[in-house]
Design brief:
single chain, 4-stranded parallel beta sheet, about 15% strand, pyruvate-formate lyase- activating enzyme, 2 domains, 8-stranded mixed beta sheet, globular, about 500 residues
Length: about 500
């Protein structure tokens, strides 16, 4: 595994950026944040190399060899997720990041190591302590990383950097992120300059595009406000179209995925983005997995169709009013049904995304959601559902769990901890979903996504150039994966302390 090289040589400080995310099921995710930081550092005059460990057969050896080859002056490590937020088929990523950091430290013991990524926006101080790095950056990484590396290169103390996590004596000090000058002032990421985009696409990945950062919704479980801030910071629609055009013409990318917190909010900006793409004559295929039922006009759907949308993912989370109200989603079940009809009339196929077991969930509310899901699958849509909600620090769900006595005050929550409604029996809930899945091939229970065969099927679909998104082949993939497994869910590894044969204690799985 070699690092991709960019930037100027000579006396410029050499910065090695390492992407530690290796999750490839059901498909890998292109590390857009690493490319954004690499572009910002290169634009500031630093010599930047990127080591992407996603496809490394031995990530520890790859990290060690890259340090020996690059001989960096500064090492930056990106941690995308703490875990996969999946109660039933849990994967905890922090130990992998610790192992990579150990190799980097051993290969370059005197080189300062800084860390960043979305995970640090979720739990900056706890993760800093867990990974034992020299510095960390929470929130937007572009400006903070440049300021930090500039200070280190000049031998200055970096304590004034907004978003910085550092150690002062025996204390860990976090300087909250400050106001920024807007997203359009940042250099374009140019993913293909830093990453093997084609390889990601061969493994089923979509190419990410952001039209904004931040969120105005108050979903009780969500970390977007912690990671990207409250409110929206919008990109110029022309700049978004320009980034797509560059990737289309220079890297041959034809399919793009909008990865905003909610693509269709604010709706006027989403319409402007779609119109800019149409006016540029790009003829690309578009999708998003972050479409909220809270706002969905016919004008918006028409603009999306014209721009290249044929499918989308709708994060409804439930089709039952008691749950939607407790989740603070900003819409009710009637709105979910209305949006389903409107999207269907617009000719868009949908992957409906649900969370089972949140506050207010009961056996009856689950049946409301499954009835809606069955109706949508009969109409040709697909459904993805997870069980339990990952509790993250400083979210409303965290406060609910504290009030119910199901998590302890002072718990860092770095160890994956999940909320499950007290009115439910976990074993019975899982059994009900298994039966439902066996009756509906277009229904994917979260544990199905851990199938060892699924990434292979996704890769085959990519190499065969089957039309995206690949979830449209869910029924076929599910039948093949289940047949190959011989028995359903035989490889499930639930979170520690969780038994699928007995109900959880006090409604909480820790």
């Amino acid at each position: 595994m070699t690092a991709h090289t960019a930037g100027s040589s000579g006396s410029a400080p050499r910065v090695l950026l390492v992407s530690t995310n290796r999750e490839r099921s059901p498909q890998p995710v292109i590390p857009n944040g690493v490319a954004c930081v690499a572009a910002a550092l290169a634009d500031a005059g630093h010599d930047v190399r990127v080591l992407d460990l996603c496809f490394a057969s031995d990530p520890v050896a790859a990290a060690r060899e890259s340090v020996q080859a690059v001989r960096p002056d500064v090492i930056g490590v990106s941690v995308r997720n703490i875990d996969n937020s999946d109660t039933i088929a849990l994967r905890h990523y922090t130990p992998e990041a610790v192992a990579v950091l150990g190799a980097l430290r051993a290969a370059a013991p005197r080189v300062p190591v800084l860390a960043g990524g979305a995970a640090f926006g979720v739990a900056p101080e706890s993760l800093f302590r867990e990974l034992s790095v020299d510095y960390a950056v929470a929130g937007d990484g572009e400006r903070a990383s440049v300021a930090l590396v500039d200070a280190l290169a000049a031998g200055r103390a970096p304590e004034s950097v907004a978003g910085l996590v550092r150690r002062v004596g025996d204390r860990i000090v976090f300087t909250p992120p400050g106001e920024d000058a807007g997203l359009d002032a940042l250099p374009r990421a140019r993913l293909h300059r830093w990453l093997d985009v084609a390889r990601y696409q061969r493994h089923g990945a979509t190419v990410p595009i952001q039209t904004k950062r931040g969120c105005v919704y108050k979903c009780v479980y969500c970390t977007y406000r912690n990671v990207e801030g409250w409110g929206y910071r919008l990109r110029d629609p022309q700049a978004v179209a320009g980034e797509i055009a560059e990737l289309r013409h220079e890297a041959g990318v034809r399919h793009f995925d909008f990865v905003d917190s909610t693509f269709n909010s604010p709706p006027g900006h989403a319409i402007d983005v779609c119109e800019a793409i149409v006016n540029a004559g790009l003829r690309v295929q578009l999708e998003t997995m972050n479409f909220t039922p809270a706002t969905c006009s016919n004008e918006l759907l028409t603009a999306m169709r014209a721009a290249g949308f044929r499918t989308l993912g709708i994060t409804a989370e439930s089709a039952s009013d008691p749950v939607l109200e407790r989740l603070e989603k900003g819409f009710d079940a009637a709105r979910v049904h209305e949006v389903a009809q409107r999207v269907s009339r617009a000719g868009l196929r949908t992957l409906w995304i649900f969370l089972i077991g949140g506050p207010g969930e009961t056996p009856d509310t689950i049946e409301d959601t499954l009835a809606f899901a069955a109706a949508r699958m009969r109409a040709g849509d697909a459904v993805y559902a997870t069980v339990g909600l990952r509790i993250y620090p400083d979210t409303t769900l965290h406060r609910i769990a504290l009030a119910e006595g199901t998590v302890a005050y002072g718990d860092s929550l770095l160890a994956p901890t999940f909320y499950f409604a007290p009115a439910l029996d976990l074993a019975q809930t899982v059994r009900r979903l298994r039966v439902f899945a066996s009756e509906h091939p277009r229904f994917m229970f979260s544990a199905d996504a851990r199938s060892r065969l699924l990434p292979l099927l996704t890769r085959f679909a990519s190499v065969a150039r089957l039309p995206r998104p690949h979830w449209r082949y869910m029924a076929l993939f599910q039948r093949m994966a289940r047949a190959a497994a011989g028995a359903r869910y035989t490889a499930i590894q639930p979170a520690p302390g969780i038994s699928l044969e007995a109900p959880p204690v006090s409604g909480q799985r820790t």
